[in-house]
């Protein structure tokens, strides 16, 4: 469905009934990256997976936007759907937004899932890469992000053995609005650091990383998990960055067990 949130039309996938679970996607993707989690969770939970502003079927921002503003959209979406409190899952860029949400409104979240993400802000090189990406998106369209990201999202082994998944990702990433991706790149380039937030996270937290993730490697995620009190940290073998789609069974087992054993 489409909902008007903070003066923009945002696409929101909503399935199932019960305790709300909000899933925030990564870059340059949309809610479809969660399709196997939506399928697995929606018999027991109310699963909500929006397309962030400027990605998927949601309106492209008409001026520059920060990660905190993406987070404001999520809070406004919760208000619109009468959700006082939810379990929150963030993948990569979605994780950066989850940090912002926990800073802004920790009382509205009962549990946290951090998949393939990192708390640190970009260093100088990272920021420069994102500015170059923005230029490249202007020049070449969404293929610029797709071509850089695809080899990092899946292991070489999966890219060879699962051409259908590769095709699906090529289609999703290749149909993103270039301007929306430019806004997202700039927002990530200038995001704040969330390392200080970690020790204040007071909800049960599940941390998942792919063993071969080159973007948010296990060493980075272990260090992050160690700073979140009581968090549970898991490395998925034979997985790169896009763990929810590359190892959906292992991912869903962890997710379902976590939600079942957590008072959400
Ligand atoms: C993502 O998957 O959302 C991106 O890899 C995040 C990033 O580039 O930092």
UniProtKB/TrEMBL annotation:
It comes from Paenibacillus sp. SYP-B3998. InterPro entries: AB_hydrolase_1, AB_hydrolase_fold, AB_hydrolase_sf, Epox_hydrolase-like. Residues 20-247 form the AB hydrolase-1 domain. Keywords: Hydrolase. This is Alpha/beta fold hydrolase. One of its GO terms (molecular function) is hydrolase activity.
């Amino acid at each position: 469905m489409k909902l008007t949130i903070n003066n923009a039309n945002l696409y929101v996938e909503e399935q199932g009934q019960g305790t709300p679970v909000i899933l925030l996607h990564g870059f340059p993707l949309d809610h479809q990256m969660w399709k196997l989690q939506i399928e697995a969770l929606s018999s027991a939970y109310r699963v909500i997976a929006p397309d962030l502003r400027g990605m998927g079927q949601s309106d492209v921002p008409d001026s520059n936007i920060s990660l905190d503003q993406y987070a404001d959209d999520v809070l406004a979406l919760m208000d619109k759907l009468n959700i006082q409190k939810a379990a929150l899952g963030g993948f990569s860029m979605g994780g950066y937004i989850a940090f912002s949400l926990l800073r802004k409104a920790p009382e509205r979240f009962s549990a946290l899932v951090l998949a393939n993400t990192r708390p640190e802000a970009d260093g100088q090189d990272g920021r420069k890469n994102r500015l170059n990406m923005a230029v490249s998106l202007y020049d070449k369209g969404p293929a610029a992000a797709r071509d850089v990201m695809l080899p990092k999202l899946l292991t070489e082994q999966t890219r060879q053995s699962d051409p259908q998944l590769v095709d699906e990702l090529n289609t999703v990433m290749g149909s993103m609005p270039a301007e929306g991706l430019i806004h997202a790149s700039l927002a990530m380039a200038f995001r704040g650091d969330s390392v200080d937030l970690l020790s204040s996270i007071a909800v049960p937290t599940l941390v998942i990383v792919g063993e071969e993730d080159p973007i948010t490697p296990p060493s980075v995620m272990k260090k992050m998990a160690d700073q979140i009190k009581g968090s549970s940290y898991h490395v998925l073998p034979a997985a790169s960055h896009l763990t929810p789609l590359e190892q959906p069974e292992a991912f869903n087992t962890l997710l379902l067990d976590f939600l079942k054993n957590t008072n959400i």
